Fold this protein.
Amino acid sequence: MGQSASSPAPLPFPPKDAVRDVIIVGSGPAGYTAALYCARANLQPLMFEGDIPHIPGGQLMITTEVENYPGFPDGVAGPDLMEKLKAQAARFGTELVQKSVSRIDFSKRPFRVEADDEVRFGKAIIVATGATARWLGVDNEDEARNRGASACATCDGALFRGRELVVVGGGDTAMEEATFLTRFATKVTLVHRRDSLRASKVMADRAAKNPKIAFKWNSVVEKYLFDDKKYVNGVVLKDVKTGKTENFPCGGVFVAIGHKPNTELFHGVLDTDENGYLKTKGGPKGATMTNVTGVFACGDVQDSYYRQAVTAAGSGCQAAIDVERWLEAVGH
Ligand code: NDP
């Protein structure tokens, strides 16, 4: 990728046994943005992008059209957006390694990071491992994903204008997504496996009062149904009380049964909130600091609330600035 007159070619990467200023773990919008900022601050970041099953690029790699990322008035395909973020991070001198980190020794600095056969050392770590939407796990779900089944109403809702939709789940996310989807859908049916909701009363009441939302209680999706273009046109619902099944026609399915932050590497070391998301300091300074000095977290792994590409990118920027200032403060 070419350099502009104002951006000199990046320095060669340090040898593998050198202690790096910062190692970034994870490669969604948060990780790439953190890398871009660290690289432009001459920190020569090393990023472990992940490898199957940790898709490099994160959740956007499985998102079709992104219409709400600023700067793209005509929308952008999720994978294209990630390619651009990656190229921008690389251009300023991020070393990208397509491997998944298997272990980090947080007990002393520099931190020791293992990924496959590689061992690297970093003065600071930025955790940007993201979260994974939970899917139902029914047999033909893989064929339905991105062909009428989605796990993100904010990302994909507008593509379902004028259709009848199903939302699966009984928590706040399901209520919020169903309510949001009524902007586009002619009708939304909330399918929940029990006869009472987990959602907070205020969110549940809002959904219940919405004339476009109907509830299907004690019901689970057994499988997806497809039209001859292999696009979802219904689901098979099973009543868990009676065992009866029915074909339920719909023009799209939103699975809203929660997200799982990708925190396996940090169990017992980094503090988490009651939902399992990494805890960061928050506030105006050092917002992305975790409980371990020198370890910072950004993006969905520490955010159960906003969960947007743009907020993840924003917190990646914060993490990079936090690292830069922390390294300066501790005299590196
Ligand atoms: P939750 O874990 O709260 O709810 C998940 C829902 O999905 C539950 O109703 C659960 O059923 C159902 N479910 C789980 N697995 C399956 C399955 N395999 N098949 C069918 N149904 C299933 O997750 P949310 O994402 O809704 O919320 C996560 C957190 O984020 C919560 O703390 C929530 O309050 C918060 N949040 C807040 C919002 C706000 O305040 N605006 C918006 C969105 C989320 P069951 O009830 O039977 O367990």
Remarks:
- The mean pLDDT is 94.
